[in-house]
Structures are given as C-alpha cells and as structure tokens.
Amino acid sequence: MNNISGYHFVLVLSGVTENTESLEDILFEAQCDDALIFYKNNTVYLEFDRDATNFESAIFSAIQAVEDTDIGIKVQRIEPDMIVNLSDIAKRTNLSRQLVSMLVSGERGDGTFPPPISKVTSPNPLWNWSSVAKWMFEHNKLDEEIVKQACFIEDINGALELRNQETTQRRQQLLKKLESAA
After folding, report:
1. pTM metric for this prediction
2. Are 27 and 72 found together in one domain?
C-alpha cells in the first residue's frame, strides 16, 4: 500500500499575469485546488500543498495540471530556490545562524563545509542548497528526504531551463568552445 504524504513547493509561472482573465477558475478546474495563487514583482506563482506518494509525483502532477490548461501557462522553475545565504541555510536546517556561520568558517565541525558558489568575495556569499543539504545530511544535521528533494528541484529546474530552445542552443555553442579550448 502506498503512503500518501503532503508536499509543499512553489511553481513559478510564465504566460500569465495577474490580469489573466479567470485564472483562479481555470487552475481550479485543472485540479490545482491545493494551490494558492500569488502575484509579486510581475511574477505569478502557485504555492502548493499537494498530497502524493512521493515528492517527484507531487511536482510532476502539478506541472502537468498547470501546463495542460488551454491558456499557455508554462512552469519556469520550482522553488525553494537552490541559491542560499547563511540565513536561508539556518532556516532550512533549523540551526541558528551563528552555528551555521561557525560551520562555514570551520570553527565548528570538521572544516569541510561546501565552498560558496557566488559572491565569494562579499561579506554575504551564496551556496548551492543541494551541496549544503548533502553536507548537512552527512553530518547528521538534516534528514535524507530533504537532500533528495533538494537534488530533485535542482535537476528539474535544469530540465525546465532546457525547454527554452534559445538557451539550450547557446549553451551547446558555449560547450563546444569550452571543449575545443581544452
């Protein structure tokens, strides 16, 4: 027997605005009655609390329901975001910001915390959440399910990005240049 659990996530949309006529009704009819619609910074996003047998099924069923509408909605990405700062890490791990800072600096732990991936020279560097989640799991500070979800969100966002033909073609050209330079 499959156990059903509830999963919380956000779908960031394109192809709609807060002025899209009957958006709430359309999404309700598309079986998205487990999502709240939000409009912020010229972006429409759906905050889901979806029941499913696993996280991936919850995400895929939500994407399919949203994109099967006849008004041209596309899912741009899934959140929570993969780029995190110290405060985000503390919140997601239920650790204090001070403890996270000490883990990052090596004052606590074994000194192997993942390096930041952006803003490395600033006082507020940024990390890749899936790398941090893996490290936290390996150090008994996070549940394995959170790691799996983080890795899946990173992968599905990469796949969603590949659907943009122009982006994909440009990246293929850049990859060819990198390979010829090696």
Report:
1. 0.87
2. yes
